[in-house]
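Note to self: keep these together.
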Amino acid sequence: MDRRNQSIVSEFVLLGLCHSWNLQIFLLMIFFVLYLTIILGNIAIIILIITDHHLHTPMYFLLANLSFVDMSLSSVTTPKMITDFLRDIKTISFGGCMCQIFFVHLNGGTEIVLLVVMAYDRYVAICKPLHYSTIMSLKKCIMLVVASWTTGFVHAMSQMAVIVKLPFCGSRKVDSFFCDIPLVIKLACIDSYTLGILMNADTGVLAMTSFILLLISYTYILLTVQKRSKTGASKALSTCTAHITVVVLFFGPSIFIYVWPLSITWVDKFLAVFYSVLTPLLNPCIYTLRNKEIKNAMKRFRNGYTDFKENI
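Structure:
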């Protein structure tokens, strides 16, 4: 199509989760509470890990970074969704749409690699305990976290390098509550089928490669745990179960959105909500409810706070 006949798109229209005004008000209250819980829960974990010297270990250093990424991922889409519940016409500027795509894939790509790093940390701790402190030094942990963010940045930029150059015309309606690549590509004035497959393959390769590595890692860890004493095995199994739960909750929706899309609108919206809201909410719950050291740290924090108040 001749570019002279293409209109320059300055904004997109988000169709949101539903059209009923009463339901939107109900969802506004629900998601506001969920988002507040995500922010407070993840900030609490980060503060707890920073202030409690018992938690100054590689595993909790990585967990603090995971909490930050979860908080960032949810903040890219959820505040916009909440405010849009009060609007009849939900619009987002072209620049805002591109920013959402970039930061969703930046945080998503970072979390994918970070989960692999956390699996590697558990592998070293369980399978090579005598060399753990040497292998997982502070310098090594920082390098692994930087590598996670670098991978996420490169992945996001590879997506942006293609999508910002697409010609857009005609429909501006994005059938979701935020901009995501599979939906935005459909609005381009080109045959988007092949491009959509290539763009999804970019995310899919990263997600599936990491997911397979995680399955192999945790399978090897669990097999090793079976040979250990019951006490050590029970503690290691509890930790690994929490990690595996987080992996399944994060990768499940991602695989169905980018690797094996179902092309069912309400399912896509549910998976998008699960990916951007529920997973960042469940992660702190899983790690705090199943982690004895985190619970003990919370008790020490409460006791310290009580003593501080009494001394004032």
